[in-house]
Amino acid sequence: MWQGKHRAHSRWQASKSSGMLRTETYGASERKRNNSSLDSQAILLLAVQGLFGIANALSGTFIGVYLWKASGSLVLIGWFNFTQYAVSGIVFWLAGKWVKEHNGMNSLRLGVALSGVFYCTVLLLGNSAIAYVIPIGVLHGIALGLFWLSFNVVYFEITGPSNRDRFNGWAGLLGSGAGIFAPWISGKLIAASEGERGYSIIFTVSVIIFVIAVILSFWLKKRNTGGRYDWLHGLHQLRKDGSPWRLAVPGIAAQGVREGVFMFFVGLLIYMSTGNEQKIGNYSFVTSLVALLSFWMIGKYLTPGRRRTAMLVGTVALGAVIIPLFWPLNYTILLIFGIGTSLFMPLYIIPMTSAVFDLIGRDEESAQRREEFIVLREIALTAGRMIGISAYMLVLPLVKSSPQAIPWLMLAVGSSPIVGWLFMRRYVSGGSKDAAHVK
């Protein structure tokens, strides 16, 4: 039974010499793992993630707009996103064996490198990229799958229940910082360079930053391998009576439903309302500044015992801030929505992420299967994103005849975190006695 007493969970792996399980501290002493501070490896991982986030914020924010300007088709953009989500889910499952049994750091580096290749490819294709949305979606999906699988495994290994909220707070802080300046700079460059040349500049800069991130990643220590990879471990957990993952998986999927649409559609709505990339940069500047302050405050003061209440407040608020979208859509309305989302998202996402990884490390047997559980988490997220993008594709034919279809879509998918809270509520509280078993 996982008691959530804030004691560091021992990490376990198969011994290469005897096959016997041993406690693994992942480069930290017991004292450090009980400490809420972050060690040098955690800080280095945050730096790599920060660079990855900056590069994607510079260019990824505008990929949807770039494809929209070239095609004028929301359906095409939907297929691009659907493809990358589907492929990333498959990559999570396939690459799990590589990460568990071989050098997982190479998966992280290859993911960063392929992200650079993706932007190089879009840059070389130019406007003809719209004819290759499926292949470039596949490429981006492979890159994201390789990076986030390895990143999450390393993140689990170098954090514990006592410092996981702090790490997530800093990760959100860095992501918000990237969102403040990178899209704003990109928007100004694109606007000042008459579009196409501006896109070429920001895509090139992103590639350079990805290269720097790859170089920096070589200072991350190689992780120890953890035994044989079980291809069907996730399925076994879903079929097992009493497994907490029978509730956690649909809760994680509910998180993905929202992400699947909001990660690209909000920027498109801003451009469609204003016709100006600079407005997207300004929007990102304001909302990311709010998110930065919110992540800093919540990451500093949130404790495992407060997660359940924080997550409930966050989920309700994230649904409520969508209501202004039912007014005539313009930049001001979208900005109000964005500020509200940025303010309350940390209340939801920090407890959600920390609780899921605490489940992975709840006991010796579970921690030994950390790669398989992370794959299960990522596949659940991917499934949710594909559900969200499918809803988007189904609603598109209704938009011309009924413009209100868009805010109803946003409300439906944007309220999915409430469903996630219902599934996860017994696991987000650090003192929950139900944290290990479903009754």
Automatic annotation (TrEMBL):
Membrane topology, from the record: Multi-pass membrane protein
Coiled coil feature spans: none
Key words, A-Z: Membrane, Transmembrane, Transmembrane helix
InterPro entries the UniProt entry points to: MFS, MFS_trans_sf, Sugar_transport-like
Top-level taxon of the source organism: Bacteria
TM region(s), chain numbering: 42-68, 74-95, 107-126, 132-155, 167-186, 198-220, 256-274, 280-298, 310-327, 333-359, 379-399, 405-424
The keyword Transmembrane helix belongs to this UniProt entry's keyword annotation: yes
Subcellular location: Cell membrane
Pfam family, one: MFS_1
Record PANTHER family: INTEGRAL MEMBRANE TRANSPORT PROTEIN-RELATED, MAJOR FACILITATOR SUPERFAMILY (MFS) PROFILE DOMAIN-CONTAINING PROTEIN
Protein name: MFS transporter
Source species taxonomy: Bacteria, Bacillati, Bacillota, Bacilli, Bacillales
